[in-house]
Batch of 2 targets.
Target 1
Amino acid sequence: MSRKVEHIGVLGGGLVGALNSIYLRKRGYRVSLFEKRPDIRKAGTDSGRSINLALSRRGIKAMQDIGAFESVKDILLPMEGRMMHSLEGELTFQPYGKEGQFINSVSRGRLNEILINKAEEAGVEIHFEHTCHHVDLNKTEVSFTSPKENVTYQFDLVIGSDGAFSQVRQEMVKIPRYNYQQYYIPHGYKELTIPPTEAGDFAIAPNALHIWPRGKYMLIALPNVDRSFTCTLFFPFDGDPSFESLKTPKDVKQFFQKTFPDSLEHIRNIEEEYFKNPTSALVTIKCFPWVKNNFVLIGDAAHAIVPFYGQGMNAGFEDCHVLNQLLDKHNDNWDATLTEYQLLRKDDADAIADLALDNFVEMRDLVADEKFLIQKKIEAR
Ligand code: FAD
């Protein structure tokens, strides 16, 4: 006899939580989604973060499954390859694959809005401004603070899609012999903007992921639908140069002039933006098991990875797709489904976590090395 599941609580209405709640609702479950932030559709963009993400085949497949992809198509910008910017400003284009093959740049905020809309249309009960502060793994209870009141709900099953610092996982970590590993790389990241030109056009080629590889660090830029680019500086926290060593607007300007000179033609307010925007850390999290009693981890809560393979969200979306396939296979027998889900996904999650760490070295360093590229082509044959 498998556990009986009618009412599912989903913690976290980010990309994975929103998508997964649609899958579950479409299977006929009562689904309540809790998100600590205000409604993203009313608050505008993602709390001022303009971040965009690379969406690939795995992510698209999951959205096609639940009929959301048609609405997402309009906000995608195809990137057919990487455009390398040398110190001298020379450009080298490396296609990702054969003609017609590409990945897509998508706004995190707008994608989240679309998925929240689809979840609401599907009948998911959504509670914004509900911050989970405690979970009881034995009673399947979750306690929230909200502007109005503090509440505790009980569910038949709880999905923890509450991101890299998951409250659900923090409770699981307390279980004896629970495996947990977190690793911060020495680099952090900061976002900057290349606005559209005065004529309203893209300032640099829109069909590419731009990279300024500089050995120990790099700058990248992905296009946005409004014809701007979001740039991300991946840079060490300490040492020289580092976030710590660039102390004044003058330091920043001089560093960019010396290191990424052609980017400065386009990033207009570097001195102001650099100090206004936060510096964030990059973590890899591995843990196991992902299922304890009636609690299940999914997405970054189960496997946060560094962004250098552009696969964190895509892997989280694939979790949802695989979970749904397993529910089909096991006729909604949750015991059988969850056992297979965590075994099946764990190896893939570990593999992409390691690949993502390795790819940082390639992107920031070897990507500009002709000998390495020739060697890679020989290996690929
Ligand atoms: P999150 O997006 O973190 O969502 C978790 C949600 O839970 C949030 O909405 C949060 O507010 C909510 N929450 C957290 N705690 C609580 C609580 N206690 N109570 C209630 N709600 C809570 N992936 C890609 O596939 N392609 C890319 O190109 C890419 N680029 C990236 C670039 C950067 C710089 C970074 C940092 C990540 C990138 N990623 C990329 C990874 C991607 O952002 C994540 O894998 C993805 O957002 C994970 O989605 P999630 O829903 O699991 O977690």
Target 2
Amino acid sequence: ARPSPFFHTAPTATADSLAILHLTRDNLLPIKLQTTADDGYAEGAVTNTRFGSFPHSTLIGLEWGSQVRASKVDTGTRGRKGKNAKKQEAAEDNGVAEQSNRKRKSDEQPEDTPASPTKKFKSSNGEKANGGKIDTARPPIEAGSGFIHILPPTPEAWTASLDHRTQVVYTPDYSYILQRLRARPGSAVIEAGAGSGSFTHAAARAVFNGYPGDSSKLSKRQSQGKVYSYEFHEPRVQTLRDEIRDHALEGIVELTHRDVCNEGFILQDNTPPSVDAIFLDLPAPWQALKHLSRSTPNSPLNPHSAVHLCTFSPCIEQVMATVSALRKAGWTEINMIEVQHKRIDVRRERVGLKEEGLRGVNASAASVDEAIGRLREVETKLSDFNASRAVTNSANREEITTNTSGQKHPSKQERLDRIKREAEERKLYKEGNLVHRTVPEVKTHTSYLVFAVLPRDWNEDDEKRCGEQYPVDDIMRGTPK
Ligand code: SAM
């Protein structure tokens, strides 16, 4: 079986593999790197973005994380324009500069990226050019073109770039959920509904036990690590099935087309799975709970372990209905969590010497009083600066130990130390005060997470088996064997 690119990443981007193009922090684009596709360009397959065109021949062979500059693509060799170029033109006519990027949340090139990228780069004939520097023999980059980074597929990058068919579970939530569910290599997990497959990919990585798709040597179904995924919306099932196949996750993810609230968790082959963890991202998770008991026929719960459950609901009324159903069904350790993810913007706020200070004042003062206050502050700093320059000059002159009133002057060394100290302070001041703010556009409420545990059943037989192993009666009599 083919290894999944999500688990076995080659050190470089290879042909026919999945790659994630990082355009900006909030704008990632998954592509399949191709050598054979003919997009109508002389270069073969080309991905067009608002930061320019990227022939796949310039991406294949790059180390993951490389920064790549856009190329000028040749559209004229066949006397017609490539289909991507035509689409892009049509998109531009509509005021949209990019044809292939679905999200387009943030339109700027990342601020934190250097203005003149000098990272590894391949020339179009497939050779690494200039020992990883920019290939100066390349045609000049067109105005408006820029650069991107090429990233390997990971569940995080997939979540940020996938085609949303539904609301999805994001990384801050699923990383917390998976650790609370104790999902680990070899675990068997149910997820319903599968939706856009965001949680599916993260769960698959969590349970993957290191076997590169060859499960034939493993006897137990759950020991290979398994995600049993259910979805009742046919087109979503089809799209996710295609993605699971493309991402070589068939050995780990078993997707079943089923309404879990009405039909339960039976698999395609009419057998139940046997799981230790369950994640329900459904509008009415309490309706599925009747199928998640140990006594129900075809119970999907592993009889030999406690089962951890999480439901994901946006409204508190859904939480109340779920908690009530969980209590009645004998679940324990029921509690609710909300993950409040905040992006924190940390930067230096510049209020430096005169000119910069004035700019700082204009840019960031909230009121006139504050602006005047800051202006005074800047002027004080400026006069301190001038005073310290005077001290520097005097330090260079002949040393005078007392002034006219007989007070002791600081020694030359003391004055130099002071100047150095002040220079340091000035430097920090010029860099600005370190401030941080939460970025307001990040929505903090995603959903409420309800967690619960169903202990393993314990019957006479279990007690007998255990008694043979651990002779409790003997222990109580104080005569262990
Ligand atoms: N967790 C998914 C992700 O991260 O991409 C998103 C799930 S989406 C919010 C909810 C999905 O549950 C929808 O795709 C919907 O079709 C499916 N669904 C709703 N009720 C269902 C049911 N009774 N059985 C199976 N799937 C159901």
